[in-house]
Amino acid sequence: MTTLTATSEPTLLGEADWWRQAAVYQIYPRSFADANGDGIGDLRGIISRIPYLRALGIDAVWLSPFYPSALADGGYDVDDYRDVDPRIGTLEEFDEMVRELHAAGIRLIVDLVPNHSSDRHAWFQEALRSPKGSPARDRYIFRDGRGENGELPPADWESIFGGPSWTRVEDGQWYLHLFAKEQPDLNWDNEEVRADFRTTLRFWADRGVDGFRVDVAHGLAKHLPDELPSKEEMKAITEPGQHPLWDRDEVHDIYADWRKVFDEYDPPRIAVAEAWVETSRRPRYASAEGLGQAFNFDLLQADFDAAQFRTIIAENLALSAASGSSTTWVFSNHDVVRHATRYGLPTPTEKVETSEIMAIPSKDWLLRGAPEEELDRELGVRRARAATLLEFALPGSAYLYQGEELGLHEVGDIPDEARQDPSFFRNKGVEVGRDGCRVPLPWTTSGSSFGFGPNGAHLPQPAWFAEVSVEAQDDDPASTLNLYREALRLRHELQAAEALTWDEKLTTGDVLAFSRPGGWTSVTNFGDTPVPLPEGEVLLSSGPLEGDELPGATTVWLQRG
Predict the structure, then answer these.
(1) Which of 172, 293, 487, 520 is most buried by its number of CB atoms within 10 A?
(2) Kind and range of the H or E element at 488?
(3) What's the CA gap between 162 and 76, in Å, rounded?
């Protein structure tokens, strides 16, 4: 029997460490619930669904960007970091939402986008009006171009969304944007930038926000010498912490500064890093001197395979022990194909490479128009239910994405003219984009938008949404929605120290089994063939059991001690 712990001193949940084993539900606000009927989700819609969230049993909401934005990148192009997009609501409604969430026992984590602002931000507009070398331009990254008349960009770099990562302005200078041209990168060597974000952190913390999800956390610190390296030269840089753009060691000075702000509050505010970095580099982002927690996307990128899951779980619990943090488990979010669909497609013989931020599995299937005959919907949902029940049994935080509790599949057949994701337009024929996981949720079996709002939805919803809506599943004890509800209820009841023990007798072939403190065991059959069901009282299973056998693609929780 092998015991793994996520902390050197096992910890139970308390006021200051509520996040360590929390179930956090991501709301993409424009697609959650629309109260005013304009087709876009809003804060009033979220407030109306708080009873649903409470009944689901989550500990916290992670709210994706709700700031004023032109939506060049779904809200991740921020015009004003200390306001609410009027299409989504008002600051007064935000305060009401915080009060109502807290009254329901649900904490709030908000998305923060510090790598770049939007090109409509007051600072960037001032920079465009200001001369070269001015303080206004120093808040961003402006450079003279190459060539006889500066007509060439400062470097041949490509943006994450495709196309060049430099755009020229009227006076001939160029500005850096690692994402869309509407998202100019901020200069984090500028003390004014650092001070303004400290103000932003306090602004939201003072309004009751419990924590922050930090977008592109590995990108803030940059090293840009006078002679910029080419993209090929950057590929050759392998020394950790030395890439000019990503995961530089200096980024942690920024987060140490933020930690001082977090610790001004009681309990301290928390943060979780979106950092696409080498596994060995993740603990520093999650350290108590930094952000405190970092996303682990390893399961999100894994096949439905017992050996892969075991390796990932063991490695990440060891990393958590090294950082003193708890690990995070994620299967779906606003950037990737929903895991019910990933698990329902044939396992590719070769991994398809995509950009690190937009690691979209099943890309080839989407590019070919999402042929329905290749997707085994029933198998995908069965595997997703099994994987989720395993996830809920693990020590650490479980991050859920809105709609996964309904077993939603990716909407793969959105017409080109209805798409919104910039990656689709900038990489046509290469990237389909992320709209398929951002389609507004189905709440009812009928209506112009299946209960999302009274007047349609900003992305087209498929007819099959009716049969997987909240209304369709609410009273069905076998539904995916009620599996989530019961699993989260039991998770709170059973939760104890952050440790697990592999059950080596049961962990064989396609079976993965581990026990948690308190004498309960999680057993998952990743295969297609039933296996003997271990002895013990069945607490919950992800699917029907067959006598004394555990069917394939099924997880069971057992009380054995």
Answers:
(1) 293
(2) helix 480-494
(3) 16
**Structure confidence at residue 51 (pLDDT):** 98
Q: Where are the alpha helices (DSSP H) in 169-305?
A: 191-206, 231-235, 251-262, 282-285
From residue 547, alpha-carbon distances to 107, 269, 295, 534 in Å are 41, 48, 39, 12
Beta pairing class for 554-559 and 537-541: antiparallel
Q: How far apart are CA 361 and CA 284, in angstroms?
A: 27
Instruction: Give the model confidence (pLDDT) of 339-368 as tens digits.
Output: 999 999 998 655 544 444 344 457 788 888
14 residue type, one letter: G
Handedness of CA 400, 406, 407, 408 (dihedral sign): negative
Q: What is the pLDDT of residues 388-397, one digit of tens each?
A: 999 999 999 9
Gyration radius of the chain's alpha carbons: 23
CA quadruple 9, 14, 17, 18: dihedral, nearest 10: 130
- Peptide bond preceding 267: is omega within 30 degrees of 0, i.e. cis? yes
509/550 Cα distance (integer angstroms): 14
Strand ranges for 411-553 from DSSP E = 499-502, 511-516, 520-525, 531-532, 537-541, 549-550
In the structure, what pLDDT confidence band is assigned to residue 1 with cuts at 50, 70 and 90? very low
Residue positions annotated with a catalytic role: 215, 264
Residue 11 has pLDDT above 70, yes or no: no
> CA dist 380 to 299, 342, 407, 425, Å?
15, 7, 9, 29
Write the DSSP string, 125-137. Answer: HHHHHSPTT-HHH
The amino acid that residue 82 corresponds to is R
Q: How is residue 485 written in tokens?
A: 């509800």
Residue 6 binned pLDDT confidence (cut-offs 50, 70, 90): very low
Strands 531-532, 511-516: parallel, antiparallel or unpaired by DSSP? Answer: unpaired
Residue 513, C-beta contacts closer than 8 angstroms, at least 6 positions apart: 502, 503, 506, 507, 521, 522, 523, 524, 534
Average pLDDT over residues 445-462: 96
Whole-number average pLDDT of the chain: 93
**What are the residues whose beta carbons fall under 8 Å from the beta carbon of 96, sequence distance 6 or more?**
43, 47
For the full predicted model, state whether its pTM sits above 0.90.
Answer: yes
Task: Give pLDDT, residue 143.
Answer: 98
Residue 352 has what pLDDT? 47
The residues pairing with 167 across neighbouring beta strands, listed in sequence order, are 175
Helix (H, G, I), strand (E, B) or coil at 23: strand
pLDDT of the residue at 357: 39
Please tell me whether residue 475 adopts helix, strand or coil conformation: coil
Residue 174 in contact with residue 184, Cβ under 8 Å? Answer: no
Section 471-478 average pLDDT: 98
Residue 490 backbone phi and psi in degrees, to 5: -65, -35
Q: Is 506's pLDDT higher than 90? A: yes
At 539 the three-state DSSP class reads strand
Residues 173 and 142 sit within 8 Å (Cβ to Cβ): yes
